[in-house]
Amino acid sequence: MPDNSRQTVGSHGSGGGDSSQGWAELAPGYEQSRAREDSLDRLVEWPAQRELFGDVAGRSVLDVGCGNGGKLAELVREGATGAVGIDISGNFLADRPPGLELIQADLSDLDSVPGLAGRQFDRILFLQSFGYAREPVRTLKAARELLTDDGFILLTRTQPIRYALERTEQNGTMLGEEYFSTAGYTYRSGWNDEVALTKRPYTISDLLNVFSAAGLWIETAAEPQLSEDDRRRYPHKQAWMDKYLGILIFKLRPLPTGPQTPLPGARHSS
């Protein structure tokens, strides 16, 4: 599920994401777009996500907002076990590898999905899907409870400056004005121009505040770009990246529960 809807959090308030029903209509078009040779998901996003995800052999994986389950199927073929994907569209792969379970459900109700009750996972993915959560903190807290002791969440979001820039072009305003605006705006998706989505703006500090409120800390953050070869091969994609920046990737781990437990790598004065 891609990041086509957004939530207002942190300094922008505590409201939830846009309705995920729009995604159910957009899902087929998105999968067709992602399969293109020059798809930024194929060229930039998935390779970077896959690198941060690390070795999956023998690891249990939950993909929240998995789309048709294609990426999770790749992980299963690489040795992931106990793999579960959930997506509201139900537009799942017909040919799936053994050991891959796909559940039609709303990620906003992650804490009440029957197929997840009593289970834990080594790795949890939110790949451009988190913006659909009605209550972002609640959704991340529910995911945190599903992690094993050494597990982590890999979460990606569209760079918010992209959305601010799009609004400056639409409204004839200034970048800072739109970046800090709380007003939503409506647009039609390139995957299906019959579907209109209303977006709610967010800032980078909003994201950080959500992670903290959900009891998570950032182990790693990345802003992936095209490789040198792909920049030359797909100049139109590099032009888009130069203007709209791309995505943010966060590797999140639960905050220590003990009052005196330090974060890994933290320094303390004697």
Automatic annotation (TrEMBL):
Region (Disordered): 1-31
CDD domains assigned: AdoMet_MTases
Pfam families: Methyltransf_23
InterPro entries listed in its UniProt record: SAM-dependent_MTases_sf
SUPFAM superfamilies assigned: S-adenosyl-L-methionine-dependent methyltransferases
Source species, domain of life: Bacteria
The protein, known as: Methyltransferase domain-containing protein
UniProt organism field: Microlunatus endophyticus
